[in-house]
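Help needed: design a sequence for this.
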């Protein structure tokens, strides 16, 4: 199943978040247990060349390749699709006008104005007939409009009603900054959870999909209960930090209390005892 079919089937989809613009690193992320990898061009280091190269290991691992474009770079949305991405996440879609521009770049006529030229994507996605591609791609690709400001919230129904917008993706960090008028950054701010829940409900009611960036894995169940199905998890830094912490903790626990030739096997235990 492609990403759109999985979301239509109401499946939970977990995406890794990649900010290291290197196809070998993306390959490692793609080979973990995620369903998809999102290549981040907004705050991550990905750029056109790294996206062009990184879609390959993601698809090779049987995962969905997704790109988050920089703010307002709707030209890059079409290019990401031409490179073989299945979905594009556009940050800071703050109005119906933004949503229209995004949809225009994501969908072929008559829905939008995407220009023809899937130079890499056609072969990467197993295309066989240009007409089939033209006919199928408007539904097979997923456009996620990011909701992360007060103006986006005010225009939510219009954004959801925009032809060619398939889904919303909530950015809880920016949303918390907007929610508190710049007083705080707290992606799990309890005070905004009702709004976070309402956004998913309104998206689903409009027949669109809802996604969110999960900053704290413990909130995942709550988000799924609210109606979010597309859930973005950690980037390379977070995965490495968690993995390294688990490894080093496991190794320390394993040697704690053991002696080698009468000396503590745990170098940190001896070091702290000697005061160094
Ligand atoms: C946000 O939380 O603002 C994001 O953009 C997450 O990716
Ligand atoms: Mg954001």
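Sure. Designed sequence:
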């Amino acid at each position: 199943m492609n990403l759109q079919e999985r979301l239509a089937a109401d499946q939970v989809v977990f995406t890794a978040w990649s900010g290291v613009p290197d196809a070998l690193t993306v390959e490692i992320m793609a080979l973990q247990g995620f369903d998809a990898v999102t290549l981040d061009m907004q705050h991550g280091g990905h750029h056109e060349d790294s996206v062009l190269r990184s879609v390959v290991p993601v698809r090779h691992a049987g995962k969905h390749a997704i790109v988050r474009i920089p703010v307002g770079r709707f030209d890059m949305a079409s290019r990401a699709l031409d490179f073989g991405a299945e979905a594009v996440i556009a940050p800071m879609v703050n109005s119906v006008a933004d949503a229209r521009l995004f949809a225009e770049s994501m969908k072929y006529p008559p829905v939008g104005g995407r220009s023809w030229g899937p130079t890499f994507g056609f072969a990467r996605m197993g295309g066989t007939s240009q007409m089939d591609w033209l006919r199928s791609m408007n539904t097979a690709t997923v456009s996620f409009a990011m909701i992360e400001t007060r103006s986006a919230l005010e225009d939510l129904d219009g954004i959801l009603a925009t032809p060619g917008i398939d889904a919303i993706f909530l950015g809880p960090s920016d949303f918390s900054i907007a929610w508190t008028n710049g007083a705080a950054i707290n992606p799990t701010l309890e005070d905004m959870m009702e709004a976070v829940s309402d956004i998913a409900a309104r998206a689903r009611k409009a027949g669109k999909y809802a996604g969110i960036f999960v900053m704290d894995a413990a909130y995942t169940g709550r988000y799924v209960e609210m109606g979010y199905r597309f859930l973005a998890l950690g980037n390379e830094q977070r995965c490495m930090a968690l993995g390294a912490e688990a490894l080093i903790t496991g190794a320390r626990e394993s040697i704690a209390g053991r002696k080698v030739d009468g000396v503590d096997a745990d170098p940190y235990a001896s070091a702290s005892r000697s005061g160094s």
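The mean pLDDT is 96.
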